[in-house]
Amino acid sequence: MKTILVPVKMVLDANVRPRVRADETGVDLTGMRLSINPFCEIAVEEAVRLKEAGHAEDIVVVSIGPAKAQDTLRQALAMGADRALHIQTDDSPEPLAIAKLLRAVVEQEKPDLVILGKQAVDDDCNQTGQMLASLLDWPQATFASAVSVDGDRLRVTREIDAGLQILSLPLPAVVTTDLRLNEPRHCALPNIMKARKKPLTITSPSDYGVDTTRRLTILSVRPPAGRKAGIRVSSAAELVGDLRQAGVL
Amino acid sequence: MPSYKAPVEDMMFLLRDVFRSDAVFAEMPAQTDTDCDTIESVLEEAGRFCSEILYPLNMTGDIEGCRLENGKVITPKGFAEAYKVFSEAGWGGLSASPDYGGQGLPRTVQILVDEMLSASNLSFGLFPGLTRGACETIEAHATEDLKNLYLPKMIAGIWTGAMALTESNAGSDLGLLKTSAKPRDDGSFTVTGTKIFISSGDHDMAENVIHLVLARLPDAPAGTKGISLFLCPKFLVSEEGTPGAPNNISVGALEHKMGIHAQPTCVMNYDGCQGWLVGAPHRGLAAMFTMMNAERLFVGVQGLGVADASYQTAVTYARERLQGRTPGATVTSPIIDHPDVRRMLLSMRAFTEAGRALTLFTALEMDREKFHPDPEIRRAATGLVALLTPVIKAALTDFGFEATVLGQQVLGGHGYIREWGQEQVVRDARIAMIYEGTNGIQAQDLVLRKLTLDDGQPVVRLFGLIRKTLDEAEPVPALASVRHAVQNALAHLESVTKRLTSGDLSSAEERNAAAVDYLRLFALTCFGWLWLRMAHAQTEAGISENGNKPAGKLATAQFFADRILPQTASLAVQIGAGSASVMAPDAGQF
């Protein structure tokens, strides 16, 4: 392999309690702590490990999102990526538009492997990797829990409901990462400083001729309903009766 | 369960919105790249390291402690590995000189990382902290040969540093020390003596320990003017920089201490070991004092760090713990709803955030002192740093300890047992009030030396800065009541300062008796000043008072103004009463 492409997404930090905007149009992100999506961080780590093991020469990270997404790219650069591409947009494009943009980046960068998170923890779509593989007509291995290079093929262990499935894929391919693939490293201070000086190119969706207009309409976003007060029952029989009435027994 | 998360949002609020550090660093040619985005990425990663690697070792390190086996110190499980990861990730070289492999970041960033280290694991943080102090001393005073031989490995964390000052009869008064140094033919010296209380004196975390030892040359005059500084490595180092033969340095004993159990505090025997002179003969104390401001800032920040760790645990507990009902509640309330618990939590927070602001204000002045091209600005910065150093060291460790006691109190019985870690923090916090010059000594330094330094210019300048903040806040109605409280505090401080410097309290005995109370009055007024600045900055930056961090500055400023700052009035009365009642009983009556 020569080049690995790692798409990364900036999301609301997993440790922050999300708050719904007053107008119910979505989650309030203003002034909130934003971080790299945990699955994307695992993807970057895996790419860096492949490079460190001598299986790749060049790691390109790409993020599609607002200006603040550059912090996410800088973090990926500090972890060991070589170059970054920021496709800047304040829209929040749907997975298909993202996949189309990534296809355009793939055509430009010609990577041998695209490795990305299986899903983002904000919208949990779990679609981008699969759509990208279809658009490129490349083989795909999703939910990877282990990746190794086997000659000119990739051996990927997948976590499936029944257990583990092991696939062998020809390259180029798309791999999406699961939680147990690796544990991302702590960045070294000199690498954080060097990351500030690594190349970061800024483009926009229109540079790739991709229309990022949303096709879906969000009707409303609401927080989960608060817990209602319980009732006290006088006997086990009454409890069973109530549960039957509620249709849970 | 207890957990620690570095308060990066609050730190960045201070840098971005209160002190506008981008503009400050833009004036320093060596620091023009140090923008807030860079600082934030450094702090994020440092915070992650501290929470995930160092904090989990804090309680286990306390329980296991260090032990001495066959003359060798063994640190608690996990410390050596963590130190290796810490060093390999380059954290030890954060503010160290790029000439010797450091990253050359400013003191401002270093001190924020020091806070995280202290909060997550005070015992561990002392290892790199003391190494840095030793490196700064060597860089400022040692020969080129010594610098080239020792600094790269110390900055890389491969070797650590120790500062050997105290002897059994020479503590606050180092002029009494007896360790001797005799010249050898090759230009080096033979150092003989016993030192006590030597932090990181020996351990199993690095391949060599570099001791900076204060000793007397044969022709030395008595007292502090006859002390020289020597570099004595645990293992002698070849010209290529490889440690070889042991250097007649041994551990006499490990001190048994109240806290910081994972930090090996040693009695060190220097039995005719080989040492090299650092700086001029008889000028050792002066050489040591070049890094004293930085070390005292570091110790102050230890008090701040442990207080914040205690605060975070107390808040977590107070949210979860259900006891009693607040008026009108129909179910059992979390104790955070009870006014008295809120009082304790707010007292802690009001201190940690103001303490951090004072630390950053001072660290930025230290960076100006070191990096600013304009000599006038450097000179003014030197004065402010000298003035504020004893205030930070003493006030942050005094208030820090008080905060850890509150943090323990919030948990009731659960604060007294080990499980939540609050009792450890109380024990650990205590040392910072004592070492690096006791807080009593700090107060003497402030009152006897710093108030009159440069004809009193630094203190006049500081009061001017406080008045400027008062003026700037005047047009903002929401700040009126905090502003009024700060104005009152400043009036007390100015009046007492005048009496101490040229009025009825200016005799040596009066000043000595007033010093500790005066330092507290001084610190509280500074905290009030910085709360006003923070509340004002939050308003100007349009940060919502009720949102996520860094919100809530106005409410906390108001709490500080209403419930803590009035102490300045009683302190002024206490000090005004003079030394008569202190000196009345003769020594035999105690």
Topology:
The complex is a heterodimer of chains A (249) and B (590).
Chain A: E1 3-7, E2 10-12, E3 34-36, H1 38-52, E4 58-65, H2 69-79, E5 83-88, H3 95-109, E6 113-117, H4 128-136, E7 140-150, E8 153-160, E9 163-170, E10 173-177, H5 189-195, E11 200-203, H6 236-245
Parallel strand pairs in A: 1-4, 1-6, 4-5, 5-11, 6-10, 7-10
Antiparallel strand pairs in A: 2-3, 7-8, 8-9
Helix pairs in contact in A: 2-5, 3-4
Chain B: H1 8-18, H2 21-26, H3 36-54, H4 56-64, E1 67-69, E2 72-74, H5 79-88, H6 107-141, H7 144-155, E3 159-164, E4 180-183, E5 189-199, E6 208-215, E7 228-233, E8 235-237, E9 243-246, E10 249-254, E11 265-278, H8 284-289, H9 292-320, H10 339-371, H11 375-410, H12 413-416, H13 422-431, H14 439-450, H15 457-473, H16 480-502, H17 508-541, H18 553-564, H19 567-576, H20 580-583
Parallel strand pairs in B: 3-6
Antiparallel strand pairs in B: 1-2, 4-5, 5-11, 6-7, 7-11, 8-9, 10-11
Helix pairs in contact in B: 1-3, 1-10, 1-17, 3-6, 4-6, 6-7, 6-9, 6-10, 9-10, 9-11, 9-13, 10-11, 10-17, 10-18, 11-13, 11-14, 11-15, 11-17, 14-17, 15-16, 15-17, 16-17, 16-18, 16-19, 17-18, 17-19
Domain Acyl-CoA dehydrogenase/oxidase N-terminal (chain B): 80-157
InterPro entries (chain B): Acyl-CoA_dh-like_C_dom, Acyl-CoA_Oxase/DH_mid-dom, Acyl-CoA_Oxase/DH_mid-dom_sf, AcylCo_DH-like_C, AcylCo_DH/oxidase_C, AcylCoA_DH/ox_N, AcylCoA_DH/ox_N_sf, AcylCoA_DH/oxidase_NM_dom_sf
Protein name (chain B): Acyl-CoA dehydrogenase
